[in-house]
Design a protein that fits this description.
The complex is a heterodimer of chains A (115) and B (115). Chain A has 115 residues and is mainly β. Chain A contains no helices and 11 strands. Chain A has strands at 4-5, 9-12, 18-24, 35-40, 46-54, 57-60, 68-73, 78-83, 92-100, 103-106, 110-114. In chain A, strands 2, 4, 5, 6, 9, 10 and 11 form a 7-stranded mixed β-sheet that branches. Helix content of chain B is 0%, strand content 48%. Classes of the chains: A mainly beta (115), B mainly beta (115).
Chain lengths: 115, 115
Protein backbone atom coordinates (compact mmCIF):
# COMPACT_ATOMS: atom_id res chain seq x y z
CA UNK A 1 0.00 0.00 0.00
CA UNK A 2 1.47 3.39 -0.93
CA UNK A 3 2.41 5.87 1.75
CA UNK A 4 0.09 8.50 0.23
CA UNK A 5 -3.03 7.81 -1.81
CA UNK A 6 -4.81 10.41 -3.92
CA UNK A 7 -7.85 9.91 -6.12
CA UNK A 8 -6.92 9.86 -9.77
CA UNK A 9 -9.34 12.54 -10.85
CA UNK A 10 -11.88 15.11 -9.72
CA UNK A 11 -14.22 17.37 -11.59
CA UNK A 12 -16.19 20.41 -10.60
CA UNK A 13 -17.86 23.45 -12.08
CA UNK A 14 -16.58 27.02 -12.05
CA UNK A 15 -17.43 28.78 -8.82
CA UNK A 16 -17.80 25.55 -6.89
CA UNK A 17 -15.62 24.32 -4.05
CA UNK A 18 -13.54 21.20 -4.39
CA UNK A 19 -11.76 19.05 -1.85
CA UNK A 20 -8.70 16.98 -2.61
CA UNK A 21 -7.81 14.12 -0.31
CA UNK A 22 -4.40 12.72 0.48
CA UNK A 23 -4.81 9.59 2.57
CA UNK A 24 -1.92 8.35 4.63
CA UNK A 25 -1.26 4.65 4.87
CA UNK A 26 -2.62 2.93 7.90
CA UNK A 27 -0.15 3.25 10.74
CA UNK A 28 1.08 6.67 9.62
CA UNK A 29 -0.77 9.25 11.68
CA UNK A 30 -1.75 12.32 9.67
CA UNK A 31 -1.62 14.43 12.81
CA UNK A 32 2.13 14.04 12.99
CA UNK A 33 2.98 15.33 9.53
CA UNK A 34 3.16 18.51 7.55
CA UNK A 35 1.30 17.96 4.31
CA UNK A 36 2.68 19.82 1.31
CA UNK A 37 0.53 20.57 -1.75
CA UNK A 38 1.63 21.32 -5.29
CA UNK A 39 -0.15 22.30 -8.47
CA UNK A 40 1.12 21.40 -11.92
CA UNK A 41 -0.57 22.71 -15.02
CA UNK A 42 0.02 20.92 -18.33
CA UNK A 43 3.44 21.70 -19.71
CA UNK A 44 4.39 23.75 -16.66
CA UNK A 45 6.53 23.43 -13.58
CA UNK A 46 5.11 22.27 -10.30
CA UNK A 47 4.06 25.15 -8.10
CA UNK A 48 4.14 25.07 -4.32
CA UNK A 49 0.69 25.91 -2.95
CA UNK A 50 0.80 25.47 0.79
CA UNK A 51 1.81 23.43 3.78
CA UNK A 52 -0.54 22.33 6.53
CA UNK A 53 0.02 20.51 9.77
CA UNK A 54 -2.37 22.36 12.06
CA UNK A 55 -4.00 25.76 12.28
CA UNK A 56 -0.93 26.94 14.18
CA UNK A 57 1.53 25.32 11.80
CA UNK A 58 0.66 26.19 8.25
CA UNK A 59 2.11 28.20 5.42
CA UNK A 60 0.67 29.66 2.25
CA UNK A 61 2.90 29.71 -0.78
CA UNK A 62 3.99 33.07 -2.07
CA UNK A 63 1.28 34.57 -4.25
CA UNK A 64 -1.13 31.70 -3.68
CA UNK A 65 -4.69 33.00 -3.29
CA UNK A 66 -6.48 32.47 -0.01
CA UNK A 67 -9.13 30.42 -1.77
CA UNK A 68 -6.57 27.60 -1.57
CA UNK A 69 -6.43 26.22 1.95
CA UNK A 70 -5.30 23.15 3.81
CA UNK A 71 -6.89 21.00 6.43
CA UNK A 72 -6.92 17.49 7.83
CA UNK A 73 -9.50 14.84 8.50
CA UNK A 74 -8.30 12.72 11.36
CA UNK A 75 -11.22 10.34 10.99
CA UNK A 76 -10.00 9.26 7.56
CA UNK A 77 -6.31 9.91 8.25
CA UNK A 78 -6.17 12.33 5.34
CA UNK A 79 -4.71 15.68 4.46
CA UNK A 80 -7.05 17.96 2.54
CA UNK A 81 -6.62 20.70 -0.02
CA UNK A 82 -9.65 22.92 -0.42
CA UNK A 83 -10.20 25.23 -3.35
CA UNK A 84 -13.15 27.59 -3.21
CA UNK A 85 -14.51 29.70 -6.03
CA UNK A 86 -13.11 27.34 -8.62
CA UNK A 87 -11.76 28.96 -11.78
CA UNK A 88 -10.97 27.46 -15.15
CA UNK A 89 -7.29 28.23 -14.57
CA UNK A 90 -7.32 25.84 -11.61
CA UNK A 91 -7.47 22.91 -13.98
CA UNK A 92 -4.28 21.03 -13.22
CA UNK A 93 -2.73 18.08 -11.46
CA UNK A 94 -2.46 18.38 -7.70
CA UNK A 95 0.11 16.49 -5.63
CA UNK A 96 0.48 16.07 -1.91
CA UNK A 97 3.72 15.15 -0.16
CA UNK A 98 5.09 14.38 3.28
CA UNK A 99 8.56 13.98 4.70
CA UNK A 100 8.42 10.38 5.88
CA UNK A 101 11.17 8.04 7.01
CA UNK A 102 13.93 10.35 5.76
CA UNK A 103 12.45 10.71 2.32
CA UNK A 104 10.00 13.06 0.69
CA UNK A 105 7.06 11.03 -0.56
CA UNK A 106 4.63 12.33 -3.16
CA UNK A 107 1.14 11.08 -3.72
CA UNK A 108 0.24 9.93 -7.21
CA UNK A 109 -1.59 13.15 -7.98
CA UNK A 110 -5.18 14.12 -8.72
CA UNK A 111 -6.21 15.57 -12.03
CA UNK A 112 -8.74 18.35 -11.63
CA UNK A 113 -11.09 19.04 -14.51
CA UNK A 114 -13.08 22.26 -14.40
CA UNK A 115 -16.25 21.56 -16.32
CA UNK B 1 14.53 36.87 -8.35
CA UNK B 2 15.17 33.25 -7.49
CA UNK B 3 16.44 31.27 -10.43
CA UNK B 4 17.39 27.62 -10.76
CA UNK B 5 18.83 26.46 -14.05
CA UNK B 6 19.51 22.78 -14.65
CA UNK B 7 21.82 21.37 -17.27
CA UNK B 8 23.49 18.12 -18.22
CA UNK B 9 20.56 16.05 -19.37
CA UNK B 10 21.17 13.82 -22.37
CA UNK B 11 20.44 10.52 -24.09
CA UNK B 12 22.52 7.81 -22.46
CA UNK B 13 22.66 4.04 -22.75
CA UNK B 14 21.63 1.75 -19.90
CA UNK B 15 24.53 1.34 -17.52
CA UNK B 16 25.93 4.73 -18.41
CA UNK B 17 26.59 7.78 -16.30
CA UNK B 18 25.54 11.39 -16.33
CA UNK B 19 26.14 14.43 -14.13
CA UNK B 20 23.41 16.99 -13.75
CA UNK B 21 24.05 20.54 -12.57
CA UNK B 22 21.79 23.21 -11.17
CA UNK B 23 22.94 26.83 -11.03
CA UNK B 24 21.21 28.88 -8.37
CA UNK B 25 20.85 32.62 -8.10
CA UNK B 26 18.70 35.23 -6.43
CA UNK B 27 18.95 33.80 -2.92
CA UNK B 28 21.60 32.77 -0.43
CA UNK B 29 22.18 29.27 -1.71
CA UNK B 30 24.22 28.15 1.28
CA UNK B 31 21.26 28.76 3.61
CA UNK B 32 19.00 26.14 2.05
CA UNK B 33 18.62 22.43 1.72
CA UNK B 34 18.23 21.53 -1.94
CA UNK B 35 16.47 18.66 -3.68
CA UNK B 36 16.32 16.85 -6.98
CA UNK B 37 12.88 15.75 -8.10
CA UNK B 38 12.09 13.83 -11.27
CA UNK B 39 9.06 13.23 -13.41
CA UNK B 40 8.89 10.43 -15.94
CA UNK B 41 6.95 11.23 -19.13
CA UNK B 42 3.24 11.35 -18.37
CA UNK B 43 3.80 10.33 -14.76
CA UNK B 44 3.77 11.96 -11.34
CA UNK B 45 6.45 13.60 -9.28
CA UNK B 46 9.14 11.54 -7.59
CA UNK B 47 11.59 13.01 -5.12
CA UNK B 48 15.11 11.75 -5.74
CA UNK B 49 17.47 13.20 -3.14
CA UNK B 50 18.27 16.19 -1.02
CA UNK B 51 21.28 17.73 0.67
CA UNK B 52 21.83 19.87 3.71
CA UNK B 53 23.14 23.42 3.52
CA UNK B 54 26.77 22.45 4.13
CA UNK B 55 26.60 19.13 2.31
CA UNK B 56 27.05 17.13 5.50
CA UNK B 57 23.74 15.30 5.25
CA UNK B 58 22.07 13.67 2.28
CA UNK B 59 19.00 11.53 1.71
CA UNK B 60 17.90 9.42 -1.24
CA UNK B 61 14.88 7.55 -2.48
CA UNK B 62 15.51 3.83 -2.25
CA UNK B 63 15.47 3.30 -6.01
CA UNK B 64 18.61 5.40 -6.53
CA UNK B 65 20.62 4.58 -3.41
CA UNK B 66 24.09 3.42 -4.32
CA UNK B 67 23.77 4.74 -7.88
CA UNK B 68 23.15 8.47 -7.52
CA UNK B 69 25.11 11.01 -5.50
CA UNK B 70 23.91 14.49 -4.68
CA UNK B 71 26.47 17.17 -3.93
CA UNK B 72 26.83 20.92 -3.88
CA UNK B 73 29.41 23.67 -4.19
CA UNK B 74 28.28 26.68 -2.20
CA UNK B 75 31.12 28.80 -3.56
CA UNK B 76 29.68 28.28 -7.04
CA UNK B 77 26.03 28.32 -5.96
CA UNK B 78 25.64 24.98 -7.65
CA UNK B 79 23.91 21.69 -6.99
CA UNK B 80 24.86 18.43 -8.67
CA UNK B 81 23.49 14.94 -9.22
CA UNK B 82 25.94 12.26 -10.30
CA UNK B 83 23.99 9.40 -11.82
CA UNK B 84 25.71 6.06 -12.40
CA UNK B 85 24.47 2.66 -13.54
CA UNK B 86 21.53 4.33 -15.22
CA UNK B 87 18.44 2.28 -15.96
CA UNK B 88 15.65 2.81 -18.45
CA UNK B 89 13.34 3.61 -15.54
CA UNK B 90 15.51 6.63 -14.70
CA UNK B 91 14.22 8.32 -17.85
CA UNK B 92 12.60 11.54 -16.68
CA UNK B 93 12.73 15.28 -16.48
CA UNK B 94 14.96 16.14 -13.54
CA UNK B 95 14.24 19.28 -11.55
CA UNK B 96 16.24 20.94 -8.84
CA UNK B 97 14.18 22.66 -6.20
CA UNK B 98 14.74 24.67 -3.06
CA UNK B 99 13.98 22.47 -0.08
CA UNK B 100 11.41 22.20 1.82
CA UNK B 101 8.82 23.25 0.85
CA UNK B 102 10.19 23.02 -2.70
CA UNK B 103 9.04 26.57 -3.23
CA UNK B 104 11.18 27.25 -6.29
CA UNK B 105 11.83 24.88 -9.17
CA UNK B 106 14.12 24.95 -12.15
CA UNK B 107 12.88 24.35 -15.68
CA UNK B 108 14.27 20.85 -15.66
CA UNK B 109 16.71 18.86 -17.73
CA UNK B 110 15.69 15.74 -19.65
CA UNK B 111 17.46 12.46 -19.06
CA UNK B 112 16.69 9.66 -21.48
CA UNK B 113 18.11 6.22 -20.82
CA UNK B 114 17.75 4.05 -23.88
CA UNK B 115 19.76 1.76 -26.10
Amino acid sequence: QPVLTQPTSLSASPGASVRFTCTLRSGINVGSYRIYWYQQKPGSLPRYLLRYKSDSDKQQGSGVPSRFSGSKDASTNAGLLLISGLQSEDEADYYCAIWYSSTLVFGGGTKLTVL
Amino acid sequence: EVQLVESGGALVQPGGSLRLSCAASGFTFSNYWMSWVRQAPGKGLEWVANIKQDGSDTYYVDSVKGRFTISRDNAKNSLYLQMNSLKTEDTAMYYCARDLPLDFWGQGTLVTVSS
